[in-house]
Amino acid sequence: MDSKSTKAGATPAGSTGGGAEKSDSPKQLVLGLLFGMIFGFLLQKGGVAKYDVLLGALLLTDFTVMKIMLTAILVGMIGIFAMHARGLVKLHLKPTKYAANVIGGLVFGAGFALIGYCPGTGAAALGQGNLDAVAGIAGLLAGSYLFAELSRSLGSNVLAWGDRGCIQLPDLIGVRTMPFLLVFAPVLGAALWLLYLYFP
To answer: What's this model's pTM, rounded to 2 decimal places?
Structure first.
C-alpha cells in the first residue's frame, strides 16, 4: 500500500512516479471541474445545501447529512479498495497528526456551527442562490490564505505534534485490510439501514 505520498484519495495506477501527470495539467483541471460540478449537483439534489437541513444535523433533528455521508463513505470505501486490490488505483494517504487534526476539527466545527455550512455545502448553497453563504465562502478564502502564509512556520512545530504517519483503522487494531472491510462494511451498512428505518 502506497503510504509515501501526501494527497488523500486515489489516482489511476499509471499516474504516479517519474512520468506522473501534474495535478495542474489541463486534463486534471478539466476533470476536477467536471467532478466538482457533479459533486455540487448531487449535494444540491440531496438537500444538504439547505440551511435548515444542516442546522438539523447539528441539533440531531435531521439525519439527511448523516445518511448521505455514510452512503458516500460506504460506497467509496468498497470502490476504492476494490480498485486498489485490482491494481487500478494507488492510495495516497494524508499523515495522521493529532495536533493538526484536533485543531483543524475544532476550527471546522466552530465555523460550521457559526454559519451553518461546511465548505462543500456552502459552495452548493451559494450556487443555488443562498446569499448567507457568501460570508462563509469569504471566510474560507481568507482562512486558506492565512493558513498558506503560516503553514511553513507551523509545519515545524504545532502541525508536527503527534505525527503518526500514514495509518489506517486496520493498522491501529492490527488486522489486515480485507478482513477489516468484510466486517466494517456490513456494520456501516447496518447503521445506514437503521438511520433510514428510524429517521425516515
So the answer is: 0.67
SS3 annotation, the chain: CCCCCCCCCEEEHHHCCCCCCCCCCHHHHHHHHHHHHHHHHHHHHHCCCCHHHHHHHHHCCCCHHHHHHHHHHHHHHHHHHHHHHCCCEEECCCCEEHHHHHHHHHHHHHHHHHHCCCHHHHHHHHHCCCCCHHHHHHHHHHHHHHHHHHHHHHHCCHHHCCEEECCCHHHHHCCCHHHHHHHHHHHHHHHHHHHHHHCC
Cβ atoms of residues 84 and 10 within 8 Å: yes
Q: Do the Cβ atoms of 130 and 49 come closer than 8 Å? A: yes
pLDDT in tens, 32-64: 889 888 888 888 888 888 888 888 888 888 888
Residue 63 grid cell: 439525519
d(Cα 108, Cα 20) in Å, to the nearest integer?
32
Instruction: Determine the Cα–Cα distance for residues 59 and 71; give it in Å rounded to an integer.
Output: 21
From the list 68, 69, 52, the residue with the least C-alpha distance to 130 is: 52
Q: Which amino acid is at 87?
A: G
Please state, in angstroms and rounded to a whole number, the distance separating the CA atoms of residues 156 and 158: 7
User: Residue 186: its pLDDT value, please?
Assistant: 92
* pLDDT value of residue 187: 92
Among 16, 67, 74, which residue's Cα sits nearest to residue 46? 67
